[in-house]
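Researcher: Here's a chain I'd like modeled. Treat it as a single chain, no partners, no ligands.
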Amino acid sequence: EVDVGSTVALRIIFRPEWTGVADAVGGGPVLVRNGGPVFRAQEAFTSSQLAPRNPRTGVGQLADGRILMVVTDGRRPGYSVGMTNFELAQTMVRLGAVTGSGFDGGGSSSLAFNGKLLNRPSDPGGERPVSNTLQLMYFGVYAPGVLPVISPNGDGVEETQQPLTYKVVRPSTVTATLTAPDGTVAFTETGLKDPGIYPIAFPPVPADPAVAPEAPAEGRWQLTVNATDDLARPSQTAQSFTVNNSLGSAALSRRTLVVRPKGKQSISAGATLTRPSQLRASVETASGVSIGAIAARRAEAGRVRVTWTGLIRRSLVYGGLYRIRFRATNELGAVELATKPFRVIRAAPVKKKQTKPPG
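Model: Modeled as a single isolated chain. Structure tokens:
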């Protein structure tokens, strides 16, 4: 109705008013509204788009303002079948979203951080070359997560901390400090750093090269990094972890447990405690799925032992590979230690002998 070349003024009225909205991104359909999952948003999407299980992408916001990005894989039988649109909405609510929206799914569903792809896109060729992405950029210093607890006790489990590093993305003046459990500074450095990734040795390297590094002290360690980039923007990051040697030397009394409804065979697992702790022992599958607790008590330092007869909540478990996991909680925090896997054989019930009636 307007002649070519005419000037048009377009006025869009939002209800409710969006005056206080600083940033916004569009997508669809609505997944989460007021903290609840939305089954059908009455938007221009068909059931064939919303109902089947597919790879899905959603973006939401938590109550404290943080952004939540969720991607689920799919279209890979035996690995992931995906989610319906409503299942994605329920997942985002479980993750704490109070508002959320869907984005393009299918082969376009991809999630990456710091240059690393985090999911398995469904297209045979991997990532799909799409033209639209939602990106959050950071300018400050960043330190990857670390193992929350390490126990260098010789059992081969979580013996060493994964490499401590920090990253700057612009030329920055950086101060990195590693603080020991007693509050002393085990390592510190200050200097101008070019964009890149920088390691920090743990255990700390002695100043004298001829002295061998000591075993790290038990307790809470903390890495703090302060940076100011070339545009005078300050940032800080911190990572903490605990060294806890409270548990060690896990062992089993046998490698196979045969369970019967009225059987008396059992398996014992032992571990060594170095300090008084609240001890919990549970049974899990070899892949780490917890089956149930078998002991919970206060234990003194020394050798502790638990026994299991193959019953969880008075029911026999199925045959397969299992292991017993100990968890000790004390003033140093919580530390876990699992035994090697052992096999459970569920024996067939013994049939009663048939007796021929007299006569």
